[in-house]
Design brief:
Strand content of chain C: under 5%
Strand content of chain A: under 5%
Oligomer: heterotrimer
Chains: A mainly alpha, B mainly alpha, C mainly alpha
Order of helices and strands of chain A: EHHHEEEEHHHHHHHHHHHHHHHHHHHHHH
Distance between the termini of chain C: 17 Å
Radius of gyration of chain C: 23 Å
Structural class of chain A: mainly alpha
Order of helices and strands of chain C: HHHHEEHHHHHHHHHHHHHHHHH
Largest interface: A-C, 60 and 75 residues
Amino acid sequence: MIQLAYAAGEANEVIEATSGVIGAAWLVPALPLVGFVVVLLATRTLRDRAAVIAIAASAAAFVVSVAVAIAVLADPASYVRPMPTWIDVGGFTVTFDLLVDQLTAVMLLVVTGVGFLVHLYSVGYMHGDERYPRFFAYLNLFLASMLILVLAGDLLTLFLGWELVGLSSYLLIGFWFEDASNASAAKKAFVTNRVGDVSFMVAMFLAFATFGTLEILELVEDAATLSSTTAFALVLLLMGGAAAKSAQIPLHVWLPDAMAGPTPVSALIHAATMVTAGVYLTVRMSPVLVASLDAMTVIAWIGALTALLAALVAVRQDDIKKILAYSTVSQLGFMFIAVGVGAFREAIFHLVTHAFFKGLLFLAAGSVMHAMANRTDIWRMGGLRKVMPVTFATSLIGWLAISGIPPFAGFFSKDQILTEAYLHGFGGVYVVGLVAAILTAFYMSRWFFLIFLGTPRWPADAHPHESPTTMTTPLIILAVLSAGGGLALNPVHSGPLYQFLAPVSASVEGLGLTPAGPLTEAVLIPVAIVAALVGIATAWAAYLRRDVSQGVVREPVRGPLAELFERKFFVDELYEAVFTRFGRRAAEVMVWFDTRVIDGAVNGAGAASLAVARTTRRTQTGGVRTYVGAMLAGAIVVVAVLMLQVR
Amino acid sequence: MEIGYYFILSGLMFCIGLVGVLLRRNAIVLFMCVELMLNAVNLTLAAAARMWAGPDGQVFVFFVIVVAAAEVVVGLAIIVNLYFRRGTLDVDVPQLLRW
Amino acid sequence: MVLAQDATTLDVPDVAWSSFAPELLLTAAALVLLLVAIARGRQLLVAAPTGVVAVGLGVWLVSTDVVVPGAVAIVWGLALPAAVFAFPHRGSLVQAWGAGVALAGALVLTGWQFVTVLGDGAGGMTPQSALAGALANDGIAFFTRITVYLTALIVLPLGYGYLRDRRINRAEVEPLLLLAVVGMAALGTANDLITLFVALEVLSLALYVLTGLARRDRRSQEASLKYFVMGAVASAILLYGMALMYVATGSLSLPTIGSVVALAGTNQLVSALGLALVTVGIGFKVALVPFHLWTPDVYQGAPTNITAFMAAATKAAGFAAVLRLYLVAFPGLQGLWAPVLAVLAAASMLYGAYVALVQRDLKRMLAYSSITHAGYATIGVVAVTDAGLSGTLWYLLTYAVSTLGAFGCVIAIERRRRGEVALVDLRGLGRTSPAVAGILALCLLSLAGMPPTAGFVGKFVVFQAGIEAGWTWLVVIGVLSSIVAAFFYLRIAGVMFLETADDDRPLPASSLGLTTGIAVSATLVVFLGVQPQAFLHLADAAAALVR
């Protein structure tokens, strides 16, 4: 039943499509773009009703995407939809041509599908906001940018979408800019992403210098001719760009802060779509990646470390959205593990299921916050199961999905990534990934238990209630997808999704990868399930079995030495002690490391720049003669340099 | 006489002008130092025209003279206006525009 | 310039009027407008005869089958008396319209030159040399003309209301502006050292006066003096460098210098010294570090419309001279100057970006940004390739439209406070005046090089040329400096959109001219970013030089 090795599919045929469904693919980004402009213009006259236009635009984009996906499914090929030229200078041509293939089809469905649901959800969530229509306009701008990114047939056009996505993310994170910390979070996100953009731009220059084109299809075709050093540099530069967008260490600092934005934004941009752009980019360029196994190993380890460290940090967070944010970083780490070990289709599969369950969890968190009047401390929740039945039920599915319990979606994708890591010989990565998986189950269970189970700990003035239908409907839809998505798409290792994606992901057969040990997939699957159960059981022991619910509003385990002495003699809690305490200490260290060292380094670089700037500005004394003197000094240097060269 | 001496002389004149710009504070004197530099160039051009036995350099000299005259007109206007505003010709008085 | 001294009869050189027709028109317009301004109450006495002469000239030209210039002359000859007649008591309006029509005419003539003389019908260019080699009608000339005329045409409406707001005595503004434009266009065409020097001085002298336009404002006066003193010294140094080139090569013609300078017999020491001094002088004009110190003070002190003009047009003209000098006259010494210019470019990019970080005055910040941009444009020069040449020309056009839009918004904001615009004055502008704030943000994003604006395509083409020519380290520094620069552009945008206003009133309404100017620049920023094709082709074709 379980096929271990699957042959990479035949390469796609390239078809130029000007008519038919594919010919209309340009509508997909165009519709939300038009929606953005129209909503901005119509806000004055239509007021809040302008939002309807934005929602209609996203729905229409979804419908067209479905049609495009069906067309690709019916007749798989790489379709190129010719569009006007953008830049054409001195043998360097960039067009707005769209590239529609299997990978694009999957991404289109995810982006427009989750995008539409989030639009719908925002109707209830943003209700009463003073800039209600503007929010929808920005959401439409984001959707258009992301779709440009996904549909781009050329790296430079992709970069256009890439930058626009960053811009709209900046606008949305800072949407409630009255609070200064939101504005600074927006700036941090933008600037961190610019660092990645530099890497991406240099990668493009290198690619153009090597291949003479930036057209994705040609790059992918010529990738085999790369020398190993060029491939190494190119892949790592691309990864630099991807790491910033997808919040991988050490460029992950912006994502937790980005939670300052409205929760639907966190769900759409910082969980389901934008942050996966890096994964999309690396998978799109997978034929280039396989040209350098060293670079792939680096990517795998970046992913593994990110997955582990972010999971450790998530263990110790108390904010309902921060936990999900670190969890997102961690899950993106899993996707990069997949990319690094050459499991490109697994990466996309996890991207899809993650979009379902993480979108679901974020929207559920938003529903909870909505009910609790924007309180975010999970220690002041508890027992919400009874008052918010729909949110509870859907969160339950999301929790099981992300924890990796079969048959929910997250199990299939995460397990297959770990399996591939092992079978491709990345033993260390596999072990780290497995630990991260256990931690994932642990912190998500903690999240779930503290919010929904136990006895209520919320303050007397809170009156939680179930959210309106516009908010619960997207939850239910996403819950269905999180429950059945994995089973439907790819129940076995080489299921329908992998068959479908085979032509667009590179083969790793030529790399000579051998399994890391004697275990087979039949053994690895139970191991993964046990790991998830261990994580859940530990959390159960820590947060449900011990009666933290009775009015406890702080982490019960504090003061490491006292705790250590107190619990030393209880054998039945040894397991928990080893696990949780070590995990918590590690998490605290990670939090410290994160805020002090990495943040400090980022801030320090900024401060150092300012210091340099303050000193150098003193060169501008204002005196004419000083200026002339400085000019002459420069002149003497220039003269001396030139004269010495001639002599 | 060796043609090189002319070049050395003009180079010296140029440097004197340059040093003058650096050292003097009076706007008018500063300006005269610039004129000295222009005349040094004229000497170079004239000497070089002789060396290459062509008219080009001499033609250039005439243009430089005309341009220098125009510069005097504009420069004096600016300096006079500044004198009315500030009551001094010292270019080192406290500055409004810096940093 | 080769006149045999012992010849008994002089060869009268054939004057190709068409080769400098746009400049001829602008010079004439400048003189007439000056006369009209002097005539005060009796403007018609000047305007009517001038109109008659111009129309007569136009009719004669049309009758000799030179249709386009004839038509331009007729239109201008009719427009001037009409304007004088229609607005008898509004001299400034007459000036502005007279200059505007002349500039539009110059643009038309440039297009006509392209069609009749330069263009080869297939979009390429055949370079022409005119006036016994003194002028070169080639790609650099053509593209510089377009950038400079377009800039001036946008600056005119931008500055019209501004000068009135600041009560600047304005009779001489338009004539001086036109003269500066003539100097800049001539700098783009100059093919020998004399023309180059004279053109440079024409534009500099006009700009010295324009900088000091606000006679009651001490900052304007101070800026004018600084600009003048330093400019004069830089001109003298440049001139000395040119003289030394003449000493070394015996020629004033740039192509001849180019062919002689690399010969074995040429005195390398003298030409290297000349090259160094020329680099210093021209580096001053385009504001490369360390010859940039005048830029922030002058940009801050000058009236804002003049600052906009200097930033956009002077930079384009200055780089035209840079391209001409280094690619036509000194390509043989490439090994000498390319590393030096590259270091200067790197220093400019980093210094400008860093010091801009701590500025509070918006105009000063844009001045430092202009230093950064001089560095970017230099990347195309040191590439010494056709791609680099057209990249620099194209970059200057994108920089011109972006910076014009930004300064236009500064003018709009200055209406509120009548004076300096500090960063705090921008707080909450996104809410009170979303249009101005949005356009300023757009132009700043373009300056920062974000797609899909003009600035991105500009940077990309220049960086691409740099990489192809092997200047990887320089491009990496350019990309790094663009991150640092993104900080301060973003800071401005952040202050506008992410901070709340102290002053909740919107900006005073802009004049029609200001609105038009800003709108045109913003449209160009987007258009050149999304559909740069037409102009990129022109820039590409502009790599044809008279060598």
